[in-house]
Amino acid sequence: MLVDVANMYHSAKNLYSRKVNFKEILKTAVFGRKLIRAMAYVVKTESGEETNFLEALSQQGFEVKEKDLQIFAGGAKKADWDVGITVDAIKMAGNMDVIILVTGDGDYVPLVKYLQNTTGCLVEVIAFQKTASAKLVEEADDFINLSENTKKYLIK
Q: Which end of the chain is less crowded, N or C, counting CB atoms within 10 A of the terminal residue's CB?
């Protein structure tokens, strides 16, 4: 399971003004299967205010991968894990039956197609339908819409 934390955080914040319950997403994703790895990809801010959140993710069973927020000369900020998640998915695919992507980002469509056609892996996507790429949802072998149970998947 590969979690694009920033994508999920911003989706929940923009749609519901709430935070994501990653522990419940992990339970739903695994449901009766053997979990091999759950990786959460996060961006560290300059202030370090996310420290407690990162510890909580780790305690819930996630392997946390951190990256520093990039701030460019003009003030623009960049903080995505698309390439890192893609590389990890491809590296792990040979040893997995299923790869679960927790993101709605349409940039992952080529990855989904590659995993399905080259490795034979099933690819499941978990995201909020309203902020998920329609093409990503269409290409996935299975899709779980977190918006169908906001009480379970969101924290006030």
A: C
* Residue 32 structure tokens: 């009766």
**What six digits make up the tokens of 138?**
């269409």
Q: Work out whether strand 154-155 and strand 19-20 pair parallel, antiparallel, or are unpaired.
A: antiparallel
Task: Look at residues 114, 56, 59, 52 and name the one whose alpha carbon lies nearest to residue 85.
Answer: 114
- State how far the Cα of 10 lies from the Cα of 156, in Å rounded to an integer: 14
pLDDT cut 90: percent of the chain above it: 81
Is the pLDDT higher at 148 or at 79? Answer: 148
pTM of the model as a whole: 0.93
| Contact status, residue 132 vs residue 125, Cβ threshold 8 Å | yes
Domains defined for the chain, CATH in brackets: 2-155 (3.40.50.1010)
Residue 99: strand pairing partners: 123
CA distance 45 to 150: 27
